[in-house]
Amino acid sequence: MRRIAIVLGVLAAALGAATTGRAAYPDRPIRLMIPFPPGGAVDVVGRLLAPELAKPFGVPVVVENKAGAGGTIATEATAKAAPDGYTLLLTAPNHTINPALYRNLPYDTATAFAPIALVAEVPELLVAPPSAPFDDFAGFVAYARAHPGELNYGSAGNGTLPHVTMELLLRRLHLDVVHVAYKGAAPALADLVAGHVQLKLDTYATSAPLIAAGRLKALAIASQARSPLLPTLPTIAESGLPGYEGVLWIGMIAPAGTPPPVIAALADACRAAVRSPEFRARLSADGIDPVGSGPDAFAALIARELPQWRALVHDAHITVQ
């Protein structure tokens, strides 16, 4: 009887494999798309993450930069890909900002994707040149209130994260500061250092050397907690604006309909990567905070930001060319 049971078990397993016709996931290389050019924070995280994901899966994870149209080209390609776990996107706040900026996106952000994991966050710093007539966040607020419309802030362009997060800050503080849109972060930062604009929300990686050299001064950090890299710098939230956050988050998504076991396996692999001391150290050195939260937390973040940016873009009359 025992021999018969074993034979029946083997036959059942074989029948199940034949019925599904599927090999265990993954059985071929995984494509991880980056919606931006090489060199930025999202690209850096993606290239560090790919080999970490390959370890538990035993297949290559190939990074592909598919930049353009504010990230919508790679996002559309992901939405239209087969929901099998072999096409993934490492995205950022453009994912939740773009639906407010573009009326006819070729996908529905709320329904076309399956969130996998929030991998990392890059908090913004509010920085100013040495010539600015204030030295801390409270001084900035007081000066802006006393001189409405006299201060300028720079951004990498209309609808970019530093633009919308600065507008969110100004509206919550009821301040009138003029926006100057540049064609990219580099010229915006150059004009800030030269004193042509008085404020900018920028990342630690690009601001830290200038702060250390005395060419910029940091007023506050836009994360919920202070950064261990700048432990004496207060957060905007603790400086009189509870709940405010300006963060470049970096998360992984897949096409909607990707099987839950595949999503779970990818989320586990992301969490394992974030627990790696080497991975954490590489990120932290550039002011990038490892996170590693799973699908539910990431889905909640997306659901929270979509109406937030829609309301802000409408109220601030933000448009893109």
Brief synopsis:
With 321 residues, this protein is of the alpha/beta class.
Write up what this structure looks like.
The chain has helices at residues 2-20, 41-57, 72-79, 94-101, 137-146, 161-173, 185-193, 204-212, 260-275, 277-284, 295-315, and strands at residues 30-34, 61-65, 87-91, 113-128, 152-155, 178-181, 200-203, 217-221, 247-255, 289-293. It has 321 residues and is of the alpha/beta class. It has two domains: 28-120 and 248-315, D-Maltodextrin-Binding Protein, domain 2 (3-Layer(aba) Sandwich); 123-239, D-Maltodextrin-Binding Protein, domain 2 (3-Layer(aba) Sandwich), CATH 3.40.190.10. Strands 1, 2, 3, 4, 7, 8, 9 and 10 form an eight-stranded mixed β-sheet that branches. Strands 5-6 form a two-stranded parallel ribbon. Strand 1, helix 2 (41-57) and strand 2 (61-65) form a beta-alpha-beta unit. The protein is globular, with a radius of gyration of 23 Å. The model is unreliable at 1-21 (pLDDT under 50).
Descriptors:
single chain, 321 residues, alpha/beta, D-Maltodextrin-Binding Protein, domain 2, 2 domains, eight-stranded mixed beta sheet, two-stranded parallel sheet, 43% helix, 19% strand, globular, disordered N terminus
Class derived from helix and strand content: alpha/beta
User: What oligomeric assembly is this protein in?
Assistant: single chain
CATH topology of the largest domain: D-Maltodextrin-Binding Protein, domain 2
Shape descriptor reads globular
Order of helices and strands: HEHEHEHEHEHEHEHEEHHEH
Give the second-level CATH assignment, the architecture of the largest domain. 3-Layer(aba) Sandwich
Kindly state the mean pLDDT as a whole number? Answer: 92
Report the major sheet. 8 strands, mixed
Work out the number of β strands: 10
Instruction: Using the CA coordinates, give the radius of gyration.
Output: 23 Å
Number of domains: 2
> Any idea what the CATH superfamily of the largest domain is called?
Bordetella uptake gene, domain 1
Distance between the terminal alpha carbons, to the nearest Å?
75 Å
CATH C-level name of the largest domain: Alpha Beta
Low-confidence blocks of residues: 1-21
Count of helical regions? 11
Question: Helical percent range?
Answer: 40-55%
Share of residues in strands: 15-25%
